[in-house]
Design goal:
The chain is built from nine helices and two strands; from the N terminus they run H-H-H-E-E-H-H-H-H-H-H. The chain is mostly helical and 167 residues long. The radius of gyration is 16 Å and the shape is globular. It holds the Pfam family OGFr_N.
């Protein structure tokens, strides 16, 4: 089900699912109907995770009213982290790189700043962060994570000397 909603150019857990081709991605991007369905699927999964897409233009997110209940599910079942990684990669494939940034920052904030998703922290740092296609935005997110990671000396996702100088 999920691989049909968020197809990738790489093999996933379902060995029968064929990876997307570049031609298929271009065809998807040209179809207004396909892109609207993609956004609806994204919003559906966000709601499942307790998140709301506040602004379709920017990709801004916030907690849904049922966030506490849904975050319990995220904390309890780590298979969701694989799904989130897949969604993030697909957002990049479909031209929604700015959505990637907001979703990753949302999870970094919830894990490192607010402490509401402790069991998602490792995936957010090891996987979610590195799905972001924009090198500049990825660096900004690494710096953001470093600012809130404790103990800061144990941060292994970027060189400390460069993080100290980052602007």
């Amino acid at each position: 089900f999920l691989f049909r909603l968020f197809p990738l150019r790489e093999h996933g857990m379902n060995w029968r699912a064929k990876p997307l081709t570049c031609q298929e991605i271009l065809a998807f991007k040209k179809s207004e109907e396909v892109m609207q369905r993609f956004l609806r699927a994204y919003q559906l999964m966000l709601r499942f995770y307790g998140i709301i897409l506040v602004n379709k233009e920017t990709g801004e997110l916030k907690r849904a009213e049922n966030w506490a209940e849904r975050f319990q599910n995220l904390n309890r079942f780590s298979h969701n982290n694989l799904r989130i990684t897949r969604i993030l990669k697909c957002l990049g494939e479909m031209g929604y790189e700015h959505y990637q940034v907001h979703l990753v920052k949302f999870f970094l904030t919830e894990t490192l700043v607010k402490g509401t998703l402790p069991n998602v922290k490792r995936s957010a740092l090891d996987y979610f962060l590195f799905t972001v296609r924009s090198r500049r935005k990825r660096r900004e997110l690494v710096h953001y994570a470093w600012q809130y990671f404790r103990p800061q000396g144990s941060f292994v996702w970027g060189p400390h000397d460069k993080l100290l100088k980052y602007r």
